[in-house]
């Protein structure tokens, strides 16, 4: 635990120093460009810690099956478009790394996990570095909101999330037609890895609607109705998503619990607060409008997940953008009420307490052959 705290502290400190000594000073319309060193430290360290894990979520399954497949020589080079599963290419890349390293079974088993960690963590940290008002606060939120630890429990899906984040420039594009044309290749690649990534196609257009309009409130009201009529609607929704179809049976839905009220409250709180400052964020143009709508969608998905936790996984594609949304809000509050305000200080403490309460148990189970004494630190 101490190692983890030190790692996060160093990452945040490097981000703070990068902001204090920026590569380029901004102006009224643009933020300062942080020093690249502030990007490298969290990108490398957070990637390494995630990449060397040997348990948490489906890591054990992928690691074990990967060692078996590699030893049996059953990993072949995919045949281009004849191999629609994009994850085949990730596995093939990992096999090439194994051939070059000539390591033992432990090292071979870790190659796939590490490559998937790179695919998610690096694009996420880069997106926060490039678009956030405060890179340090964004890294803080990335950790305490549980996004970082949760990414260790969904290898395929978070690889797809990382691919989509590489196209963030086009997701925020002012011209929707040009944006979707360039965003489509990233969407296709992500879909080939995990079918649920296709949800970002309608989201791309929905987030461009006017924020705090009728549709925004309809999204929240609709999520409540979906929960109310969940027994009728949920199986059909899950069955429509190929990678989630296994969860679409009434038996599974009736025996699996929902997300927590606390997690939903944390998702809704920034949106409720932003209601009072909506005019300011609208002044940021298309990116500001998109971030407000991301907040609405994230809250709606969190409400739906009260019925069943599996729906919460759809919000993974909005992780980085939701962090940017919260960061913009806190940045505005800091400018309004001074360097240290009640909202900044109180919000940070509340988020830290939430992170400890919700994710300490997961961190306690973390194991790695590269950190044999982690549980005792």
List keywords for this structure.
single chain; 377 residues; mainly alpha
What order do the helices and strands come in, and which of them pair?
Elements: H1 2-20, H2 36-51, H3 59-72, H4 87-101, H5 105-131, H6 135-144, H7 147-150, H8 155-165, H9 168-171, H10 176-193, H11 200-206, H12 214-228, H13 230-239, H14 250-255, H15 261-274, H16 278-282, H17 286-304, H18 319-337, H19 342-364
Give a structural overview.
- With 377 residues, the protein is mostly helical.
- The protein folds into 2 domains: 1-166 and 359-377, no CATH class; 195-337, no CATH class.
- The protein has 19 helices and no strands.
- It has helices spanning 2-20, 36-51, 59-72, 87-101, 105-131, 135-144, 147-150, 155-165, 168-171, 176-193, 200-206, 214-228, 230-239, 250-255, 261-274, 278-282, 286-304, 319-337, 342-364.
- Helix 5 crosses helix 18 and helix 12 (214-228) packs across helix 13.
- The N and C termini lie close together (5 Å).
């Amino acid at each position: 635990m101490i190692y983890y705290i030190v790692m996060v502290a160093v990452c945040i400190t490097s981000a703070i120093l990068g902001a204090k000594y920026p590569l380029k000073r901004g102006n009224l319309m643009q933020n300062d460009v942080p020093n690249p060193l502030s990007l490298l430290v969290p990108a490398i360290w957070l990637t390494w810690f995630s990449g060397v894990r040997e348990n948490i979520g489906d890591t054990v399954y992928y690691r074990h099956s990967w060692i078996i497949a590699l030893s049996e020589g059953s990993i072949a080079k995919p045949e281009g478009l004849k191999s629609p599963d994009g994850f085949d290419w990730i596995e093939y890349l990992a096999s090439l790394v194994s051939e070059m390293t000539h390591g033992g079974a432990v090292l071979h088993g870790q190659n796939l996990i590490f490559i998937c960690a790179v695919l998610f963590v690096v694009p996420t940290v880069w997106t926060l570095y490039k678009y956030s008002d405060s890179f340090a606060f964004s890294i803080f939120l990335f950790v305490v909101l549980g996004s970082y630890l949760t990414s260790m429990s969904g290898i395929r899906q978070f690889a797809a999330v990382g691919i989509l984040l590489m196209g963030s420039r086009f997701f925020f594009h002012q011209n929707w037609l040009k944006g979707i044309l360039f965003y489509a290749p990233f969407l296709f690649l992500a879909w080939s890895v995990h079918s649920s990534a296709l949800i970002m196609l309608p989201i791309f257009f929905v987030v461009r609607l006017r924020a705090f309009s009728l549709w925004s409130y309809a999204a929240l009201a609709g999520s409540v109705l979906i929960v109310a009529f969940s027994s009728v609607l949920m199986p059909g929704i899950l069955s429509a998503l190929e990678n989630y179809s296994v969860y679409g049976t009434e038996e599974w839905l009736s025996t699996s619990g929902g997300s927590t009220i606390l997690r939903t409250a944390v998702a809704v709180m920034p949106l409720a607060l932003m209601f009072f400052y909506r005019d300011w964020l609208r002044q940021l143009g298309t990116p500001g409008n998109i971030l407000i709508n991301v907040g609405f969608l994230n809250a709606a998905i969190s409400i739906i997940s009260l019925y069943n936790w599996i729906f919460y996984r759809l919000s993974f594609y909005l992780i980085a953008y939701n962090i940017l949304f919260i960061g913009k809000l806190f940045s505005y509050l800091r400018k309004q009420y001074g360097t240290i305000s009640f909202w900044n200080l109180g919000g940070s403490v509340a988020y830290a307490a939430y992170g400890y309460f919700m994710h300490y148990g997961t961190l306690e189970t973390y194991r790695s052959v590269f950190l044999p004494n982690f549980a005792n630190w």
